[in-house]
Amino acid sequence: MVRNRWLKFLLLYAGGVVVSLSQLKLVPIQNELGQDLGVSLSMVSWLMSIFTVSGIFLAIPGGAFVTRFGPKKLLIGLMGCLAIGNLWGAFSTSFWTLLISRAIEGISFSMIIMVGIVLIHFWFKEGDSGIATGLWGTFSALGSMLAMNLFKPLSQSYGLRALWLIIAGLSLILLCLYLFFLDQPANRSITERKEVIGTVKKVIENKSIWLLALAQGCMAFILFAFINLYPQIYTQQYGLSETLANRYTGYFGLFGIPFGALAGYLIDKTKKGQIIIFCSFILMLVATFWMGHLSNSFSFIGQLFALSAGASLSSSCVMILAPKVVKQDRLIGTSISFINLFYYIGIFVGTPIVSEVSESSYSWTTAIYVLSGVGVVALLAIFGFVKRNKNISKM
């Protein structure tokens, strides 16, 4: 067992990045994969979205699973599901078998965020948990950057299914490392487990958590629609080459990495959480609308930076502020799980809906306006949250 908490965090972070790589590996190869399977891009979008379907069903009971089995055992199980799903996908020859394999892969994503937060708070209980939690939230951005820059050339050199085999191998390596080098808090008693189950009713009665959950779901809808469809928008709407489109999409992940930690720093430093979260969602909305009006390389980079910053700040602010509107500490975990439920739903439906709108209207501009409408809903939810909680001190 490793004693240094930052080394344990790095192992955990590596697992998050591999999960993100598994989720996003289809984005740079979606044209080739569609041709290989003989399906349309809208069908390929379901292969990307199905990855999160497990999260819709496992977000709420995930907290009970952590309590019952412990975060270390659950993390090992998640890596096992990731390996099995990728091995299955590597040898799948039809759309439907690949779809099933993607759902199995997605089990890892359904609880990795929550498991990571539980372990971080155990390892850093003496301090620095805020920094570690902020850094943990950046694994998806790093995974996006790596996927968009590495997977296209790897698939060209070794074939499409090599990506599945690489991730399966990394998953098995991490599974072994977690087994021997990580520790976890002691399992809770049966009485405490029953208390966790009983918190769900109290959580859904909290209107502030509902508003944050709605905003987080809309954020995920926008964020992952762009992550998955940026290359298509760049090539079809603006005529960029596929190589340049993938490169720009890779920048999106790079820009988002520092903002998770920045959100925590700003809220702790200024004590103005309401203002920061409202401004973050405004920035995301502006950047979403801007996507339909790009003209040169400066505007491409500017829009990428603004959306990446806005989405990363918005998501982090939701996770940081949610515990502040929960009356009892024991409700925090279930509240985060409830918010994650909307997050997974947003990811699941976002890409297929936007793809269908663009195909039916023969216009990415219309699809971008739909995304902007979702951004307006998110901003209204945050406005309602701020109005309900304007008297809370030290937000």
Give an overview in words.
The protein has 18 helices and no strands. Helices cover 81% and strands 0% of the residues. The radius of gyration is 20 Å and the shape is globular. The mean pLDDT is 83. It has helices at residues 5-24, 30-37, 41-49, 53-69, 71-90, 95-123, 129-136, 139-158, 162-181, 190-197, 199-204, 207-237, 242-256, 259-270, 273-290, 297-321, 332-361, 364-388. Helix 4 (53-69) packs antiparallel against helix 5 (71-90) and helix 17 runs antiparallel to helix 18. The chain starts with a helix and ends in a 7-residue tail after the last helix. The chain has 395 residues and is mainly alpha-helical.
Break the fold down into its secondary structure elements and pairings.
Elements: H1 5-24, H2 30-37, H3 41-49, H4 53-69, H5 71-90, H6 95-123, H7 129-136, H8 139-158, H9 162-181, H10 190-197, H11 199-204, H12 207-237, H13 242-256, H14 259-270, H15 273-290, H16 297-321, H17 332-361, H18 364-388
Helix pairs in contact: 1-6, 1-8, 1-9, 2-3, 3-17, 4-5, 4-6, 4-10, 4-17, 5-6, 5-9, 6-7, 7-14, 8-13, 12-13, 12-16, 12-17, 12-18, 13-16, 14-16, 15-16, 15-18, 17-18
